[in-house]
Write a structure and sequence with these properties.
460 residues, mainly alpha, 22 helices, 2 strands, 1% strand, globular
């Protein structure tokens, strides 16, 4: 509270800035025309239908409120452990205070930016950073318009992790650890997005081996993480007879994992969203008469393994595409099929079902898919180009600096080491799966933080 009191005017200024940016993100996300009457009307819009919320969260929230159960229904199969519960919980709690759609946007942004704000202030207070550097750190999520937009949405998960992960990074590189904030952010990350399990356990392992003086705090945190995993696993076993823990905690991993491991992936990624293949996945669920979540996870796990075993060349091609897009992709990505391509795609799926062969494409079908891919025009996005430049430059600097300081004390190399560790454990699940531009925004924010702190090691 003392830190907040000393920085009250700064905090108030940033809240006003977030209000302004949140409103712009709100208008853009909801495709509201920039006309006075429509803008004014949108301020008073109410969230009357949770179904408006995408990424399956709308249906999950409706099922909690109407059926008193946490699940997502896909073709009659109830997935009880489909996604981490943080976002539905946050939206439901906020809706209890107000059902004004914009205010829910705004309050969510205040809450999660505040965690980042306190992390920045704590780091600056323990590491004696200049006021100018503090301001740059506080503004780092908003310096690039695309990053600001993605960070200030209500969904998807990246609009939360763009504050939480940079906050955790600052706490990890601080000279003195604040385990109250570290514990809170790690728990939030664990129940925000399934892929965060890699980063969480990567951080825990590094804490255990590198921060010996905090062993008691680390053990407490590890116990809390294990207990939370067991609680969730017990819930999963009760609902679906699956002890869902660690990397198998959430059944969405099998759903999205299969989107990256099937014969259509290389015809879609990265120009098109892999969500275009949802009809294909639903047809497979129906065709194979999958009845519950246990069968769902087993079936798609088997399908992914089968694809890997039988399609080494295509699998390798997909990984090269993913790596290329992560490091070098600067054009539009993740589009939906137009009407023609969507119709052609559905015709292919229907033919597969009729032939009882969902794992084979005829040459003319490959040509159709290739034509859709090649004919899709994509333009260079300046914001993404800037993001990639900052990120890759930071990686190069960090790798060189880390190697140069290998023989020195860890404290000298702490910033370089943790920057590389955060990058590695964050990217890893996306290499296994797939990544679009929005997934990589947090890496640019980390890079801006790294450059600001590292700049001459002096006051700006």
């Amino acid at each position: 509270m003392l830190i907040l009191k000393k920085n009250a005017s700064l905090y108030l200024f940033l809240i006003i800035l977030i209000f302004f940016y949140s409103f712009i993100s709100y208008l853009k996300f909801n495709n509201i025309d920039l006309e006075y009457e429509k803008i004014l009307k949108s301020i008073f819009d109410h969230l009357n239908d949770f179904g408006e919320i995408s990424f399956s969260y709308g249906e999950i929230i409706q099922n909690i409120l109407e059926n008193n159960e946490y699940y997502w229904n896909v073709e009659g199969v109830k997935l009880y452990t489909v996604k981490p519960p943080l976002i539905p919980f946050v939206i439901i709690v906020l809706e209890k205070f107000t059902n004004n759609y914009f205010l829910i946007f705004f309050f969510k942004n205040i809450i999660f930016y505040s965690l980042y704000f306190f992390s920045v202030l704590y780091y600056c207070s323990t590491n004696n950073l200049s006021f100018r550097k503090k301001i740059l750190l506080l503004l780092s999520p908003f310096l690039i318009p695309y990053n600001a937009y993605q960070s200030l949405l209500l969904i998807p998960e990246e609009s939360y992790s763009n504050f939480l992960i940079p906050g955790l990074f600052l706490l990890m590189i601080a000279k003195k650890k604040n385990f109250y904030l570290i514990n809170l952010i790690i728990i939030l990350l664990l129940y925000l997005k399934s892929s965060n399990i890699f980063l969480v356990f990567g951080i825990l392992i590094n804490l255990f081996f590198l921060e010996k003086k905090y062993l008691l705090n680390i053990f407490k945190l590890l116990i809390v993480v294990l207990i939370l995993n067991v609680v969730w696993g017990t819930y999963g076993y009760h609902k679906s007879k699956i002890f869902s823990v660690f990397h198998k905690s959430f059944s969405i991993n099998y759903y999205t994992g299969y989107q990256s491991h099937n014969l259509f992936f290389n015809y879609l990624y990265p120009k098109f969203s892999v969500d275009n293949m949802v009809p294909y996945i639903k047809k497979k669920i129906i065709k194979n008469k999958i009845k519950d979540e246990k069968e769902f996870t087993y079936f798609f796990s088997s399908e992914m393994k089968s694809y890997f075993i039988n399609n080494h060349k295509e699998y390798l091609k997909s990984k090269i595409k993913i790596l290329n897009h992560i490091f070098l992709g600067i054009k539009n990505n993740g589009a939906s099929y137009d009407m023609t391509c969507n119709m052609e795609f559905n015709n292919i799926i229907s033919r597969m079902i009729d032939d009882h062969n969902t794992e084979k494409l005829y040459e003319y079908e490959k040509n159709i898919l290739n034509n859709c891919f090649e004919n899709k025009e994509t333009k260079i996005r300046i914001n993404i180009l800037i993001n990639k430049f900052i990120w890759i430059l930071s990686l190069i600097i960090a790798i060189i600096a880390f190697i140069q300081n290998l023989n020195k004390k860890f404290e000298t190399n702490r910033l370089n080491y943790y920057f590389l560790i955060f990058n590695f454990f964050y990217i890893l699940p996306f290499i296994i799966g797939h990544a679009y531009h929005r997934h990589l925004v947090v890496l640019t924010i980390l890079s801006i933080i790294y450059i600001v702190i590292n700049f001459n090691k002096k006051n700006l």
